[in-house]
Amino acid sequence: MKTFKQAFEVIKDAERFHLEMAAVYETLLDKSEDYRTQLLLKHMLEHEQRMAKNLQNYNDVAQNKVMKTWLQYTHEESANDFIRRLNLSDPPTIREINIMGREVDRYFSELYQAVYGAIESMEVKEVFEDLKQIQDKERITLSMATNSLWDM
Q: What is the pTM of this model?
């Protein structure tokens, strides 16, 4: 479904998605009995909370006139819809959880890249480029943490 949203609304949607993913990870953590899986889920939970906080911090920027730029927006998905599409086991394996984390990061990287390409304002482009860089750094951190779990 394609719709039009203002740039600041995209940021609010992304923040909500991160919070929903954090809730998913928290639920999985409560059900998990495997130590490595628990460590991975804790890391991913903290990652999602950190990303939501980063986006909340962008809220000040999002309130100015520039962030009221309209753009065509196609990423209208809830965390639960996103997870359902992944066809995970119940409960998901540690490998599936790892894949889930990578898919969430890819989702946001593609979202920010798409928004960046759709906006003409350089000020707004910079915001979404910054968000993409933050997301990419977080993806590398998650990957390193995941790799260390495989060595345990």
A: 0.83
